[in-house]
């Protein structure tokens, strides 16, 4: 499903016609800051120029607080044993297929007849970026690291029943065995997500210490991968440069030799660079920018709804007054849903409010804006005059989160809840979530593996210390999630999913707003874009004519 049509590129010599001199000077400075000028056009044939709102805060997918752009850095510079196949949608768009796994670093795999293990055969000539041969010892070290370091990577591995180092067994130099703790449909798919990256253990160990046995500090700022691209340079908050690794054998040789990703927080600057033709791709665009580019028709726009994802207002159930269900429900009825859809995201998303007749996930709640009902619930909860609190959001996603925050602030004020908006730098957002000290927040979350129970495992389960950002505890819901993860009876599975959705929505620790769209604009000579569940660009498929 796509929200945007393809637009004919209308690039001409009159791109700056009608612009004030100051604006033209600003655009020229931006172009120069990206290393762009007309004389370098020929040299750009093998170079991709990308602008984004914010970039990685770490090069280590296992690092504490690694943000979503860090997933992209890992995805392109590290291999995994497997990857997902692609599929073409009826509208011609291409995206990954979560039902089909394909070889990457492993050339083949065999599941044991008793279903209790799988054996992977590695590509024998694969090498890391420094020329070190890839071995099964590297795979074991990488998986041991993932299940040991704690936090997000360890929970991600656990989501596929990959929990202890003893599960990973080196058979020989190019053969690794993974033993299953239990029958779990998510085990193999979980080995194809960014966290299951294969590290150069020889290189990493050189930078390990007794206090830091997994070289966390060094790998935050350096890579030890063997993926299709090497990180040639990284300036946090400014620019990441990737260069193709020509000895990569885990897939077809990428067409693009060099990728320059520049962080441009200004939406108007991103739009101007795209319209002038100074950049090849503007990725993860804000809704207003997409809306304006659609009107100008000077680029090709692609928008894809993000599976298993939602923007939401979250309330910390471990903090007063949000430990009171009626307070949470009052907030749910006070949210200005339609204003958010119209004024904050320009209709670019799937509404998750006001009821739904479909059985899909994500599912709409029954909540809709009802200020009188919200005031009544707040009075029943013992707060007839409201209260004061803090409303936090990720400044790295301010193009969407800030207008939502302002609309929510205004609407909550109408029922007596006075909020002070707190903007947290994108590089610090994940760390702030982990502290669990924000009472009220605006956030978005998407589950990599496209199953409802996977989303609930991450977002609602009481034993999950990472993305259960509301500190929500409900043993009945935990039991439903645990059963659904391993249920084999389709009827019982459906009932469990329905019950967990109903319970979570009634208790409202997080209030869904809308299912987001990941959007990009690219020039007419760019092709090969493929949507991925991690919502980052995969440079391996891109081409420049």
Explain what you see.
The chain is of the alpha+beta class and 545 residues long. The protein is 32% helix and 22% strand. It has 17 helices and 21 strands. It has helices spanning 21-33, 68-77, 136-148, 151-158, 187-190, 201-206, 216-221, 267-276, 287-296, 325-334, 337-344, 371-380, 398-413, 426-435, 452-459, 475-486, 490-507; strands at residues 47-52, 82-88, 94-103, 106-111, 117-122, 168-172, 175-179, 229-235, 239-244, 258-263, 281-283, 300-305, 309-315, 350-351, 387-394, 417-424, 440-446, 510-515, 517-522, 526-527, 543-544. The strands form five sheets. Strands 8-9-10-1-11-19-12 form a seven-stranded mixed beta sheet, sandwiched between helices. A hairpin with a 5-residue loop joins strand 2 and strand 3 (94-103). Helix 8 (267-276) runs parallel beside helix 9 (287-296), helix 10 (325-334) runs antiparallel to helix 12 (371-380) and helix 15 (452-459) runs antiparallel to helix 16. The longest helix has 18 residues, at 490-507. It is globular. It starts with 20 loop residues before the first helix and ends with a strand. The relative contact order is 0.15. Mean pLDDT is 91; it is low at 1-25.
Mean pLDDT: 91
Describe the biggest sheet?
7 strands, mixed
**Low-confidence stretches at least 5 residues in length (pLDDT < 50)?**
1-25
* Total number of beta strands: 21
Based on CA inertia axes, which overall geometry fits? globular
Fraction of residues in H or I helices = 25-40%
Distance from first to last alpha carbon: 26 Å
The largest sheet has its strands arranged as 8-9-10-1-11-19-12
**Count of helix runs:** 17
Q: Quote the beta fraction.
A: 15-25%
Structural class determined from secondary elements: alpha+beta
Rounded to an integer in angstroms, the radius of gyration calculated over CA atoms is 24 Å
